[in-house]
Structures are given as C-alpha cells and as structure tokens.
C-alpha cells in the first residue's frame, strides 16, 4: 500500500473522497448507466456517442461518480466502503432498478455492496437487450485483434461473455494473464510500466501468429486502456509500441478515439458540468 507522502496520491485521495467531479443531474429511476471516473477520463467522445445512442431508450439515464475503489489502496478500506455506500444510497433514493457500470472495476465494487433493490448488468448485456428490442443499433466488432481480459473479470469472465455477442470470429481472446499494471501505478511506477509492456508485447505476438498485420488490442476496462496507451507511447518503434489500443465501446459506437491520457483531469471536470 502506498502512503500519502506523494503529491499524486494526495490529490487522488482528495478527488475521490466524496468525488469532486460527480454529476447526478441527469440520473433518474430505472436503468442508470455508471461510467465511473476512469471511462470519463479517457473516452469523452465515446461517452458522448453512447449518451446520444441511448437517449431514445426509455428509463435509461447516466450518473457520473466514482465507486471509491482507488481509496482502498491509497487511504483505507473503510474510506472505500464509505464512498461505495454513498453511491449505493443515492441509487436507492433515485429509485434505480439496475445500475450499468462501464468498467469491470466498478462492477466488482457494486457486486459487493449493492442494495438488493438494485441489480447490476454489464454495459454489453444492456446493449444487447436494447438491440434485441430495436432500441439500439451498432455494428459488431470485426477488425481482427485480441481482446485483453482485465483482472476483475479473470475468474468468472462475465463481462467477456456479454461482450462476445458483439465480436466477429476475426476477434480472439488474448491468452495473456498478466495485470496491465494500473493497479500499482502509483505505488510501483517502474514495475507498472514493465507489466504494461509485457501485455502489449504479448498482444503483438498473438496478432502476428493470427496473421494480423497491424496488431490491435481491444480492452473493456478504462484503467487498462489508459495504462496500456501510456506504455505504448513510451515504446515508440518497438514491438510494444506497434499495438493499437482500442476500447470495445469505442469500436461499437463507431468512434475512433485513442485513450486521452494527457487530458484526464480536464475530461472529468467537463463531465461534471455537462
């Protein structure tokens, strides 16, 4: 666990405690989509496209907040649970029937704490249901590449199973079981970069074996996306630097968006006032 001696960790704790950039102005009863702090940081264009696509869907709204998970390692498990309880109580007060996180990290947090009156479904299960009801239209993900399974989904692969509905046979699941390094980015920065490079190199080799000329790594965790994109930029001209990192939701929305690793705070701030 990293102490609060470093400025980045202090700023993170300040921001995530009663999340500074929360925005519940558009949230209501029914289905509440929960982008979390990670997705709003890295994928503002994709989030905007998703909001536009779901606007015609009845009883679907958006809540911008943080599940509090970063506080577990940077401050205390009690601080994390307090933030999670705050979010849970607000969902219950809204009359939310289900919450739809965009990231497995938020999903794993909600799985431990949600009130019985609020269920949870992955964004991909939600989109499939809406598509089958004629309320959502998108293309399947066809460009050849590997899908990286993030740590929170390694055991049950629930998110991967739901995403599979939108994948063409040309997209395969990466065999890499390493962590992307985001979990210990602040506490062990050098080890974190090494871990991310390992994931990218593995993806490049797997794509080469599959006959993919331009390696693509699909992710469905925003934290993984940000970590891997930062590492990729540091590896320009190398095997790891040759991999294009694409979020599955960006591909589904038809949005060509690279993880915005240099604009994260500004993107979170914008999400709070929109």
Report the helical percentage: 40-55%
Total number of β-strand segments? Answer: 8
Main beta-sheet annotation: 4 strands, parallel
* Poorly predicted ranges: none
CATH-defined architecture of the largest domain: 3-Layer(aba) Sandwich
Compute the average pLDDT.
Answer: 93
Q: What this model shows, in words?
A:
The protein is an alpha/beta fold and 274 residues long. The mean pLDDT is 93. The radius of gyration is 18 Å and the shape is globular. It has two domains: 7-135 and 261-273, Rossmann fold; 145-253, Rossmann fold (3-Layer(aba) Sandwich). Strand 7, helix 10 and strand 8 form a beta-alpha-beta unit. It is built from twelve helices and eight strands. The longest helix is centred in the last third of the chain and has 21 residues, at 189-209. Strands 2-1-3-4 form a four-stranded parallel beta sheet. 47% of the residues lie in helices and 11% in strands.
Descriptive keywords:
274 residues, alpha/beta, Rossmann fold, 2 domains, four-stranded parallel β-sheet, 12 helices, 47% helix, 11% strand, globular
Topology overview:
Elements: H1 7-16, E1 30-34, H2 36-42, H3 44-54, E2 60-62, H4 69-74, H5 77-94, E3 96-101, H6 104-113, E4 119-120, H7 123-132, E5 145-147, H8 158-163, E6 171-173, H9 189-209, E7 216-219, H10 222-234, E8 244-247, H11 248-253, H12 264-273
